[in-house]
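hey m, so remember when u said the C-alpha cells were messed up on ur end? i reran from scratch. heres the input so u can diff it against urs
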Amino acid sequence: MIVRLIAPEMRSTPLRLTGMLILIFTFSSLVTFGIAYLFLRNTIDTVLEEQLNQSVVSYTSIKDANDLEERLIADAKSVDPSVMIFTFEPTAGPTISNVTSFPLIAGLTIVRDADIVPAHRELSDSYLAIPAQVAGGRLIVAQTRGQIIEMGEVFAAVFLIGLLPTLLIASTVGLLAARRARDRVEAIRTTLLDLTHGTLTSRVPNVADVPDDLEQIGLAVNRMATAQAKTVASLKQVSDDIAHDLKTPIQRVAIQLGRLQNRKNLDAEQAEIVENAVIETEGIVRTFQSLLQIAQIESGRVKERFVPVDVRQLSENLVEAFTPIAEESDHVITFASDQNDAMFVQGDRQLLSQVLVNLLENGLRHVPSGGAIIVQLSQSNDHIELAVSDDGPGVPTAEREKVLRRLYRLERSRTSEGNGLGLSLVAAICELHDAKLTLADAMPGLIVRIVFPIKS
C-alpha cells in the first residue's frame, strides 16, 4: 500500500518530506535496536568469558593427574554439550570429551555448531570457547551462547510485532495527510497558473478561515484574485470608456480630413499638409487598435475560443500571400518544414496569423532591398518551433528584451514606418498560447524563434 501511494507522486514536496521522515524514523529505530542488541550481546559474552575462566580454574586447581582424569570422565558423562562442551587432550592416552570432535582454537573464540561433531546429542548454535594448558594436556572449555541467539530472536520479534505495525500505521496516516496537503498545494498552484494566464474567475476551492497555513495561503490567494479582478475590471472599464470616447472623435477627424483632401481648391502646400495629417491620423488609429488588441489578448478571454490550428498550412499560405509583396520590394521569402504532415497547436487562428504577419512585415520593413526572409517549421515529440530569420541589420543583444515592450523602437527605426507595437503584440500572443519567444542573432540578421508546446 505504501509503495502504491509513494511511487507515482514523489515530485510532491509534502510526500517527499513525509517519506524522508519515515526513513529517518525507520533508520533511527534500527540503529537504536542495533546498539541495544550489541550492548547486551557484549555484556553476555563478558559474563560467559568469566564463567569459562572459572571453569578453567576449577580444572587447573586439581593437581593430581588421576583425579583430573576421573573428574573429566565424570563430567563427560553428565554435562549436556548443548550447554557446555569440554575436551581434554592429554600428552598420552585417549581424548576425554562430551563431543566427538572440537576444532583447535587459539585464545577466546566463537565456534559455530557446524564445526563441531556431536556425540549423538544436539548442540547449541554457537559457543564461546577458551583453551588452557592443564596437567600436561590441552583443555578446551566452551559455553553455549544460546541466550544471545534467543535474545536476537526476541529483538527481532519486538521489531516485527511492535515497530513494524507502528511504522505501517504512521506511514499510512502520514502519507494520507501528505497527499491531502499535496492536493491543497496543487489547487493553489493551479489557481495561480489560471490567474497568470488571465482566468481571473479562478479561485482556490474549499478553503476556510482556520489557523492552518495552507488554508490561510488559499484565502490570501482568493483575496488577491478578487482584488486583481476588481482592478482589471476597473481598467477595462476605463479602457472601454477611453475607446468609446476617442473612437468617435478620431473617426470624425479622419472624415473631416478626407473631405478636406477631396477639395479641388487647395494649393500644393495645403494639399501636402492635409495629406500628412491623414497619414498621421491613420497611424493614430492603427496604434490605438493595436493597444486595444494587446489589452484584449492579455485579459486571457481569447482562450475560450482556442481550437486545433494547423500552423504548417497557415504558415505556407501566408508566405504564399506575401511573396508578391516581397517581389515588389525586391525581397525573397521562402518556406521550409521538416515534414509534410499537419502540425497542430491549440490556439486562435486569427492571432497566430497575426504573429506571422507582423514578423513578415517587420522583415520587409527593416531588411534592405535584395534581402531574404526564411520561415521554418520543425516538430519534435513535445513542441513545434516556428522560426523567422532574415539577413538584415538584426537587433543588438542589449536591445532584444526592450523591443518586446510597447511603443519601443530602435534609434535606427525612428524614421521608418511602424508604431513600435508589432513585436510587443507578437509577445502577447505567444504568452497567451504558452509559447516561448526568443530573439537571436542569425549571423547576419535576426532570427525569431517561437516554441509552441504540444498538449495532449
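this time it looks ok to me. Confidence is low (pLDDT under 50) at residues 1-8, 411-416. if urs says something different then somethings off w ur setup not the seq
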